[in-house]
# Entry
Amino acid sequence: MTSFQALEWFRLLLWTALLAAGPVVAVAVIVGLLIAIVQAATQVNDQTVAFAPKALAVVAALVASGPWMLAELTKFTTAVFTALGRM
# Structure
């Protein structure tokens, strides 16, 4: 394996990780920002108020995007093992 191939696999690894984690992180950030705006407007600064909606949104995002995330991770893993078999 050349250094170029290793860097290409590393790039593919990072891209797959970004794709797999992206939807869940994006949902958590958006819900967190919305809750922060509501808390600033109402001056209710309780941490438990922010935790429950974010946790529910993350679980919903995992349920909604879970099959797609699993397919992406399976595709990457299959490509890695196929490449290892060719070495």
Q: What stands out?
A: Residues 3-86 form one domain. The helical segments are 3-42, 47-86. The first helix runs from residue 3 to 42. The chain is about 90% helix and 0% strand.
